[in-house]
Amino acid sequence: MKVASLSVTKAASTVSVALIRPPMAFSRSSYASPINPPLGLAYLSAALKERGHHVVCIDAVGEDPTRLRVQPELNCFVRGLSATEIVERLPADLKAVGVSCMFSQEWLVTRDLINRVRLARPDVFVFVGGEHVTAVPEHVLDTCTAVDAVALGEGDEVIVDLVERFCTDPETIPGIVYRVGEDLYRTEHRQRVRNLADLPFPDWESIPIEKYHEYESCSGVYEGVTMPILATRGCPYQCTFCSNPKMWGVRYYMRPPSQVIDEIEDYVRRYRASSIEFYDLTAILRKKWIHEFCDLYLERGLKISWSLPTGTRSEALDETTLKKLKATNCNYLTYAPESGSEDTLLAI
């Protein structure tokens, strides 16, 4: 593996980009398959649009969340649009395609989709990102020659660089692995986004969010139209079973509580949201932050419920904090004791 160097970003030019959330793939023995709006895709679309690029999002799950079929050769269920239907939705003037692959169990279905895209549009630039891709980028490139480049970790900045600069000087883009002929090149590590307040709000206008609302999508207690939100990124803990250290790193960054409240109010106005779900890895870590958030929630007169279905740490849940959560209509939270065995806790 060769390492390239970093240089100064060049000026951007407008590019037509398609961002794809592939259909979901999961075991036929699974007892549940949550259907959640693609928050990451919405953030990436917003980042590209802020730079003036033309973006089309194809959410295979959101377009048809009730369609469920068996993939016989993989012995799994697949939910959403077919690869053929996705390819048919690609714009005529397309220059680049970005595909998300969050879970390893979905790679074979995603790979098939990417190959179909390449067959139909041989001249477009194809890149992929997500948790699975970040964990095994060389494997992705080795097993799918239709992929030109892999984005590692957080995508808001690297996706802009890929769209604007890959065709001229890929070696100057930090945080990617890419191919030239039969060789793979890994560039320098990309620093995380530290000031989350600088990021635009997710671009839900490009996602079929209403179909998720019709499907009554939620991960916790359903109380009407539910919108996802992210208040923090990363997690300082290094659990051995978690992909966070590779995907996000162990630095923990928080948005200002007031900006999170602004986004919630925006969802109430635009979508008549009656519930908010936090998708954070570890939402409650700093008591000062969650206390300020709850105080602002009450000051702004918000009445909708909110929840922490993805989990949080129990250490910060003291009596004062729990009372504030209850006062602001937090109706559901999860946290994982992981094990009652001290030996197991030390091992993981």
TrEMBL record:
Record domain B12-binding: where: 21-173
UniProt-listed PROSITE patterns: B12_BINDING
GO molecular function annotations of the record: 4 iron, 4 sulfur cluster binding; catalytic activity; cobalamin binding; metal ion binding
A Pfam family recorded for this sequence: Radical_SAM
Gene Ontology terms: cellular component: cytosol
Keywords tagged on the record: Iron, Iron-sulfur, Metal-binding, S-adenosyl-L-methionine, Transferase
Cofactor: [4Fe-4S] cluster
Protein name, entry field: B12-binding domain-containing protein
Organism: marine metagenome
Source lineage: unclassified sequences, metagenomes, ecological metagenomes
